[in-house]
Amino acid sequence: xxxxxxxxxxxxxxxxxxxxxxxxxxxxxxxxxxxxxxxxxxxxxxxxxxxxxxxxxxxxxxxxxxxxxxxxxxxxxxxxxxxxxxxxxxxxxxxxxxxxxxxxxxxxxxxxxxxxxxxxxxxxxxxxxxxxxxxxxxxxxxxx
Length: 144
What we know:
By secondary structure, the chain is mostly helical. The protein contains 8 helices and 2 strands, in the order H-H-H-E-H-H-H-E-H-H.
């Protein structure tokens, strides 16, 4: 929560909340009015979003899987829609983003298993989009 959020919820001025949040000088006690302390301490903490799979992991496997799907003709927007993420995120992971959430890595692995054997055109992808994706993926792949 920001100082402004705390001030709004507690009914205090944001300046007072910022003063309370500042680290006190060594050996200097703070005099805080009981009503201010009760107002700030009475704010319920926001609920934390529990991730389905916590933590960050390396993206090498996810990058390889997304590159495989691109070589098969699956464009980033179609993959992003199925993964419920932004298509730029798909491109960043494919281009070796250093880390990603474990939950996303697991969804990419599951999506790869579902789509790798399917023809994108038979699944509603325009033939021109599939061809463009295959061509771009071939350019990105280093030649031996």
